[in-house]
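can u do me a favor
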């Protein structure tokens, strides 16, 4: 499958050249997973005929205004993990002749790393996979326990500041520049009615009740690569949003994605809800790695963090919809409204199941000595 000369192939080949990739460019596939960046797998044939693939990402500079700082964060964090666990699979970012791990040109901001043969999951009810994902994100957090958060740049300021997200939503609902708010009235009203509950973690942090940790901040299960044969987690990827944050940001985001009965953008919002078996499996894995370092209070926020993150993301999707979707990649004009409705339905179900979720968290944390 020799590549033709489509502009995208020419561009990808040019990027590979800048990163000094050896061999013959064969083809590319676009990997449609992320909602923000664009990701391509490029396939090469090396001298001797061996096939080798690389991943190229074009960073969304509307979301990441200072992409060089994103790359600095990634470098520091991966270096720290590599030094502690040299045996672990790590993403290897290539460098240009000028020793930069990115290329910035008229077409965008690009980076390139080795393709890791692996399996990924968008949704799965395989509880082993889920437990392993929980362990992987928990281990990520545990490995960075001794990394000082001050070393990290805030690449997207106030990323999980739910209060500020709400303030922005209210501002844009009031301005309603494209006249779309009426269509989303029910979702807007509901989200506003639960604002205080959704902002509990942010408020606790602002009162000094929760410690800052190094968090991944985008813990969707498709950001874990799994061994194709054993389903063991190999590596946590997509470190763009690694920043100082709260443990609940990682836990809650993971649950709102992995434990939902339906995909994040399912048009069948009425089917959204928390699969408690998945919830338990993820919680077991996550707390196995983290319980001993978390404070009682942090553990006490975990179940509620799922609700907080679902509401926060619902508000973000909705806000983006009202503005004509400049932030999230969309496949059709109503995509962000569909995503909003699905997150809202999920958040409502979480309220119903809050006590059950809290009980599972307590059970899984039990036995470990919480840190205070
Ligand atoms: C974005 O692009 P992706 O899929 O890694 C977003 C997350 C959202 C997620 C929702 C930088 O992540 O915060 O939770 O979409 N990332 C950024 O699917 O905004
Ligand atoms: Mg991401």
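np, heres the sequence
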């Amino acid at each position: 499958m020799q590549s033709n000369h489509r502009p995208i192939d020419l561009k990808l080949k040019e990027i590979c050249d800048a990163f000094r990739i050896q061999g013959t460019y064969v083809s590319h596939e676009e990997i449609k997973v992320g909602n923000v960046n664009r990701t391509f797998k490029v396939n090469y044939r090396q001298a001797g005929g061996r096939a080798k693939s690389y991943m190229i990402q074009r960073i969304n500079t509307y979301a990441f205004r200072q992409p060089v700082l994103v790359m600095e964060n990634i470098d520091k964090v991966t270096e720290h993990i590599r030094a502690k666990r040299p045996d672990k699979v790590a993403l290897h970012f290539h460098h240009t002749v000028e020793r930069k791990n990115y290329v910035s040109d008229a077409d965008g901001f690009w980076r390139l790393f080795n393709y890791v043969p692996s399996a990924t999951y968008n949704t799965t009810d395989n509880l082993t996979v889920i437990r392993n994902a929980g362990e992987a994100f928990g281990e990520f957090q545990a490995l960075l326990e001794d990394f000082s958060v001050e070393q990290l740049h805030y690449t997207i300021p106030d990323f999980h500041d739910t209060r500020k997200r709400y303030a922005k939503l209210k501002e844009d609902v009031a301005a309603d520049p494209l006249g779309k708010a009426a269509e989303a009235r029910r979702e807007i009203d509901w989200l506003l009615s639960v604002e205080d509950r959704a902002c509990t973690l942010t408020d606790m942090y602002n009162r000094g009740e929760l410690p800052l940790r190094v968090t991944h901040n985008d813990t969707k299960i498709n950001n874990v690569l799994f061994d194709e044969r054993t389903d063991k987690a190999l590596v946590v990827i997509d470190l763009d949003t690694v920043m100082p944050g709260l443990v609940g940001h990682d836990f809650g985001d993971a649950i709102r994605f992995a434990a939902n009965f339906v995909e994040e953008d399912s048009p069948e919002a009425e089917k959204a809800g928390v699969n408690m078996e998945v919830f338990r499996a993820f919680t077991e894995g996550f707390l196995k790695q983290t319980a001993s370092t978390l404070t009682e209070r942090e553990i006490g926020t975990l179940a509620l963090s799922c609700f907080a993150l679902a509401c926060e993301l619902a508000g973000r999707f909705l806000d983006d919809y009202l503005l004509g979707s400049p932030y999230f990649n969309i496949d059709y004009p109503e995509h962000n409204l569909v995503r909003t409705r699905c997150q809202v339905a999920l958040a409502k179900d979480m309220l119903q199941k809050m006590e059950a979720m809290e009980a599972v968290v307590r059970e899984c944390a039990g036995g470990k000595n919480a840190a205070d």
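Confidence is low (pLDDT under 50) at residues 368-372. hope that helps!!
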